[in-house]
Amino acid sequence: MIEAQHLTKIFGSKRAVDDISFTLEKGEILGFLGPNGAGKSTTMRMITGFMPPSGGTAVIGGHDIRHDPIEARKRLGYLPENAPVYPDMSVFDYLDFCAQIRGFSGADRKKRVGDTIRKCFLDSVRHQTIGTLSKGYKQRVCFAQSILHDPEYLIMDEPTDGLDPNQKHEVRLMIREMSAEKAIILSTHILDEVDAVCTRAIIIANGRIQADDTPEGLRTRSPYHGAVSLTFGPTDSGKLMSALRSVEGVKNTILIDESRSEVSVRVLPQTRETLIADRIMAALSREQYDLKSMYVEQGRLDEVFRNITM
Amino acid sequence: MRTKEFTNTVTAIFKREIIGYFGSPVAYVFIAIFLLLLGFFTFYISHFFEMGQADLRAFFEWHPWIYMFLVPAVAMRLWAEERRMGTIELILTYPITVGEAILGKFLAAWIFIGIALTLTFPMVITVSYLGDPDLGAVFCGYVGSFLLAGAFLSVGSMTSAMTRSQVISFILAVVICLFFILAGYPPVTEIFSGWAPGWLLEVITNLSFLSHFQSLQRGVIDLRDLIYYLSVIFFMLFANSIIIQNRST
């Protein structure tokens, strides 16, 4: 379990992180969201013990990072922002160094390094100097370093930054595969990633937690959650709108687009819980409308994100 | 206790660093310049041959001055480079203490300079061939020189932790080293001799790298000189760890 307890960091007169608390259990993948400079990296740096907090603390598997840092760090894997690695070492030597510093020796060390290299698809570059590798490979080397000792807790600052779409997909798969017996925190500003990997998301802005929910839960905060989008063939939009507005439970209708060939409309329910799709279907079937498509909107994370952080 | 972990992590860092030195041209440039400068000063400035003495005083007397420039050049990357590359974020989040990281890096750099120093052995052969030197005194000279290098290095390691710029680290280290050298020289002692009480003058003179170095060259390993150098190293590395733990980024 990772517990952040009232973490606070003050730089000069600025409160970069302001009283952040949360608890994360194994099996959860927590996504940190927030605009640049919101305090995501600073929070992670305090949890890993790289930066001493101005107030509060983090407890990793029962070990306080401030008072028992060695024990806490043994259980942590950390992938810092921009994936720093020593450019003058080969991939194998670097991971071997990491394994040694984490206390592995002999055959166990060799096996661990070999396994990690395979797991992270680094076989083809294992004896190449890290400085000559592309950004994607460097990122993977640093990722490999963070999972080498099979830590119970993983903290990853923008793990897919700088990767191409295929590599992103691979890294996300790896994170999801590992998640069963680990607690994972990752930061990102790619909202799709939250949907793709996270079981929980925390939105941070101005150093404070603005929302802490599942991705589905966050989406329901969207103003368009539960709205029904309809697309029709050419039709009289005025008449259509008034017909839709008269359906029970409908709060409002918005004409999104009207062209010679299509009319698209969004229908908003009175409350988020009201289900209006089947009533609309019933109302429409009474008259002859050329309905081309219809779907219930789930709400989009980027809208929620903007609403919360702007 | 974590004695085993301590040895293990210090060894890991030591190994990485020392391989790093020899994996880059820095090592060879350093060794070449170190040997060239020593040779130049010993033979052309101090006229080693013309003096006709079977000892290495003309050789050792230049060490402090050459170290003053070359050792900070070795030390400047120790921490500044980690900060610049961001790898400091990893090394300080491994399950190791700051002291272990500092010690591993320091020892690697010290042994590296020791290797460069060992490569001056032709001087010993030359002087033994030409005359009958006091080899005990030569040995003590080498011990003194190695300790001196360690003291300079600890200063450089500390200044390297202060900044992510290697240039600033280098200049700071040279200035501090210069102070330590000059503390025992007449230009500094004369400033104090007119008015300062005797004990203060003695403290300042005793802070000098040079006076302790010279007493070792006489061929006596005095415990006080050993303690002096080791405590300078300890103090500087301790300051180094405080700086790292309290850095702002």
Characterization of the model:
The complex is a heterodimer of chains A (310) and B (249). With 310 residues, chain A is an alpha/beta fold. Chain A has 2 domains: 2-219, 3-Layer(aba) Sandwich (Rossmann fold), CATH 3.40.50.300; 228-299, Ferrodoxin-fold anticodon-binding domain (Alpha-Beta Plaits). Chain A has helices at residues 40-47, 69-74, 91-101, 106-119, 135-147, 165-178, 191-197, 215-219, 237-245, 277-286, 301-309, and strands spanning 2-11, 14-24, 29-33, 55-60, 63-64, 76-79, 153-157, 183-187, 200-205, 208-213, 228-232, 250-258, 263-269, 291-296. In chain A, the strands form 3 sheets. Chain A has a 6-stranded mixed beta sheet with strand order 6-7-8-3-9-10, with helices on both faces. A 4-stranded antiparallel beta sheet of chain A has the order 2-1-4-5. In chain A, strands 12-13-11-14 form a 4-stranded antiparallel beta sheet, with helices on one face. In chain A, helix 3 (91-101) crosses helix 4 (106-119). The model of chain A has no long low-confidence stretch (mean pLDDT 89). Chain B is mainly alpha-helical. Chain B has one domain. Helices cover 81% and strands 0% of the residues of chain B. Chain B is built from 15 helices and no strands. In chain B, helix 1 (3-23) crosses helix 8, helix 5 (63-75) runs parallel beside helix 10 and helix 10 (135-162) crosses helix 11 (166-182). The two termini of chain B are 31 Å apart. The interface between A and B is medium-sized, with 30 and 26 residues.
The CATH superfamily of the largest domain in chain A appears as P-loop containing nucleotide triphosphate hydrolases
Number of strands of chain A: 14
Shape of chain A: elongated
Q: Tell me the number of structural domains of chain B.
A: 1
| Distance between the ends of chain B | 31 Å
Q: Write the element-wise H/E pattern of chain B from the N-terminal end onward.
A: HHHHHHHHHHHHHHH
Q: What is the residue-averaged pLDDT of chain B?
A: 88
Tertiary shape of chain B: globular
Strand content of chain B: under 5%
Number of strands of chain B: 0
The CATH class of the largest domain in chain A: Alpha Beta
**Gyration radius of chain B, rounded:** 19 Å
Structural class label of chain A: alpha/beta
* Strands ordered across the widest β-sheet of chain A: 6-7-8-3-9-10
| Terminal-residue CA separation of chain A | 32 Å
How is the CATH topology of the largest domain in chain A named? Rossmann fold
